[in-house]
């Protein structure tokens, strides 16, 4: 008891620091002995601080950030957007730059997280050393308590107050200082001479063990989270490399596609010009064909007209030839009749003068020469008279005049 009273002026001082939303506790200046009653409180404080919402949000935030920086959906969307044109390629480059910036920020956050984990590891080691000191002092205090008279054992009220304060600490991180004051008051009350029973001491030992296990488990979880973050960072780096490679390939493919499209456009323009020329030639050929058809139709019609006119002229020429033949026959008949009449007249006139007989007169009559159009009964042989034969000229009507055939 005297030893406890001598150590009341000495206090246990806690410093709370917050780094990257992770509270860490550092224990300074643990002096004196008889502080084994503080072991459950310190262990509970460590458990609550390690399991606080501010601490539990680190891994989801890091995971969410790493998931936000994941490259698989971004890679698919970028490879899809590359083929849409120059604007989308610029957007892809901006997104890639943003991803690089985000990756750099994530790397910085990971480094800060590693520093925080290292600081937390140091703080946990310090807390473990403090717990070991508490254990040593508790064992010393237990050995001394055996020789001390019994004191009224009751620490339930202060223990419940500490527990309630620590429960509130889980939901209200901003009230850590107030809870620390409550813990200090509890420590002062415990230093005033409150003794623990054997069951409470066993419970305190059990709580210390659980606190140690919880601290180790929390440290292992933090190390596991750090490993996961490193794996996600490596995956993000591989994804960025794959994105760079895909972007380069996509840029080359896009340049090739632009070149092919330009060549296709040039070929299409040439084909379009050739097609226009062919259309013009076809139109000219169609117009020439129409003109030729019209000329052919006109020539056919003209030929038909000429054939009809020729047939008419042939009929007319045949009619004229028949008329001319009949007129010639009539003319020949008239000539023969005229010659006969003249000869008869001449014979009658010469008969009295010559005093010839009728037989001589008959024998002196001229015989008409054979004419192609006269029958044979008109052929008369006789001596030609020395008297001149007078020829008469007759005018033919226009219908009987010969016509010249039309030249084709």
What can you see in these coordinates?
The structure is a single chain. With 408 residues, this protein is mostly helical. The protein has a domain at 2-265. It is 74% helix and 3% strand. It is built from ten helices and two strands, in the order αββααααααααα. It has helices spanning 2-6, 38-50, 53-56, 58-68, 72-82, 86-145, 156-171, 176-191, 198-354, 358-364, and strands spanning 13-19, 22-28. Strands 1-2 form a two-stranded antiparallel ribbon. A hairpin with a 2-residue loop joins β1 and β2. It is rod-shaped. The model is unreliable at 1-42, 49-72, 151-155 and 359-389 (pLDDT under 50).
Succession of helices and strands:
HEEHHHHHHHHH
Across the major sheet, the strand order is 1-2
SS elements, strand count: 2
Average per-residue pLDDT, rounded, comes to 67
Q: Could you tell me the strand content as a percent range?
A: under 5%
How helix-rich are the residues, as a percent range?
over 70%
Helical/strand content category: mainly alpha
Give start-end ranges of low-pLDDT stretches: 1-42, 49-72, 151-155, 359-389
Q: How far do the termini sit from each other?
A: 162 Å
Main beta sheet strand tally, sense and closure = 2 strands, antiparallel
Radius of gyration, taken over Cα atoms and rounded to an integer in Å: 73 Å
Gross geometry: rod-shaped
- Total number of helices: 10
């Amino acid at each position: 008891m005297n030893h406890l009273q001598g150590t009341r002026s000495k206090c246990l001082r806690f410093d709370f620091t917050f780094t990257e939303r992770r509270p860490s506790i550092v224990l300074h200046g643990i002096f004196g002995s008889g502080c084994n009653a503080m072991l459950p409180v310190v262990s509970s404080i460590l458990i609550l601080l390690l399991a606080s919402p501010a601490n539990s949000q680190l891994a989801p935030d890091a995971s969410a950030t790493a998931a936000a920086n994941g490259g698989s959906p971004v890679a698919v969307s970028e490879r899809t957007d590359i083929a849409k044109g120059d604007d989308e390629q610029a957007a892809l480059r901006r997104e890639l730059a943003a991803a690089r910036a985000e990756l750099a920020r994530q790397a910085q956050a990971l480094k800060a997280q590693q520093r925080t984990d290292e600081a937390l590891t140091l703080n946990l080691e310090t807390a473990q050393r403090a717990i070991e000191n508490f254990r040593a002092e508790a064992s010393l205090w237990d050995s001394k308590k055996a020789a001390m008279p019994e004191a009224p054992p009751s620490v339930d009220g202060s223990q419940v107050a500490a527990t309630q304060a620590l429960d509130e600490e889980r939901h209200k991180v901003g009230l850590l200082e107030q809870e620390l004051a409550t813990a200090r008051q509890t420590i002062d009350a415990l230093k005033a001479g409150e003794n623990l029973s054997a069951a409470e001491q066993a419970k305190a030992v059990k709580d210390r063990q659980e606190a140690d296990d919880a601290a180790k488990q929390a440290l292992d979880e933090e190390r596991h989270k750090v490993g996961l973050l490193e794996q996600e960072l490596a995956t993000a780096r591989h994804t960025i490399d794959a994105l760079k490679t895909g972007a380069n390939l996509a840029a080359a493919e896009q340049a090739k596609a632009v070149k092919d499209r330009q060549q296709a456009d040039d070929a299409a323009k040439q084909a379009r010009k050739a097609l226009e020329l062919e259309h013009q030639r076809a139109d000219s050929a169609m117009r020439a064909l129409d003109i030729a058809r019209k000329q052919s139709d006109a020539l056919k019609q003209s030929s038909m007209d000429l054939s009809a006119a020729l047939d008419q002229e042939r009929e007319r020429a045949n009619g004229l030839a028949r008329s001319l033949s009949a007129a010639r026959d009539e003319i020949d008949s008239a000539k023969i009749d005229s010659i006969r009449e003249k000869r008869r007249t001449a014979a009658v006139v010469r008969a009295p003068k010559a005093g010839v007989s009728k037989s001589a007169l008959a024998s002196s009559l001229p015989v008409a020469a054979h004419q192609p159009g006269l029958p044979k009964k008109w052929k008369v042989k006789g001596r030609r008279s020395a008297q001149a034969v007078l020829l008469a000229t007759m005018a033919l009507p226009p219908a009987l005049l010969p016509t010249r055939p039309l030249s084709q």
